[in-house]
Amino acid sequence: MRSSNPVFSRRGFSRDNGTAGFTAAPQAGGPAAVGTAQGNPYAQGAPVNPYATNPYAQQDTQYGAPQAPVRGDVMTMDDVVARTGITLGLVIAGATVAWVMNIGLGLAIGAALVAMVLALVQSFKRTPVPALILAYAGFEGIFLGALSNYVNTLVSPGAPMQAVLGTMAVFVTMLFLYKTRIIRVTQRFTRYLMIAAISFIVLTSVNLLFMVFGGGDGLGFRSGWMGVVFGVVGVLLGAFFLAMDFKQVEDGVAYGAPREESWMAAFGLTLTLVWIYLEMLRLVSILSGDD
Fold this sequence. Notes:
This protein is mainly alpha-helical. 61% of the residues lie in helices and 0% in strands.
């Protein structure tokens, strides 16, 4: 199953078409599978367990199945956490600089355009480029900091902090729902989420065009009670994308993806969290009654 996140769509992390976590290939150190490791994009082509922890064992004495030599330099959960911490740290640092220096919206929009270009370039590369990912995080942070400062000063005081807390709550909630398998990422889940996301983006784009050429609030999709509805939908879409990101990370670790892929995992998680924060910021601003 492919991820809806453009960063993951080329990576081949997914294990199969089943439910996340229940139809996985053998984990590192687990019993070897008999037959070829079908569906594993990182298998070495041998009909053995590519994640065996004993590099010298030719036979699994407990299960009687041959094992392959251990693969070094593979992605771990610690790698993903560390890289994600670095990228989010740069986003926060950029946002802090923009806030303290009171950068105007003109420069903020320029930073957003640069961040978008960097994100697109990285998304279409077959291998992660840490410099691109870190540069994206920095420019994205500048945009978010300037926008948040504007909203806090002129639109809704306190909205950025509420949006940050809301984003953290969404992340923790989705992580709990995913780990407890209350939410299961399947092909049907992905298909419906993609349809909803595309529809959301199209309607938002149409509304933006009406705002630019017609003035006012456009079709009203991003203000008033319709804005609240769209804000809630946007947050929910971001939350469901988080579940898909969690699955991609889980599958990458289970399959022994190259360690460099942890940068792509961090990139994808950062993109999703930025989406949620922006939708949460707009929603809080509207609910404050000042938008």
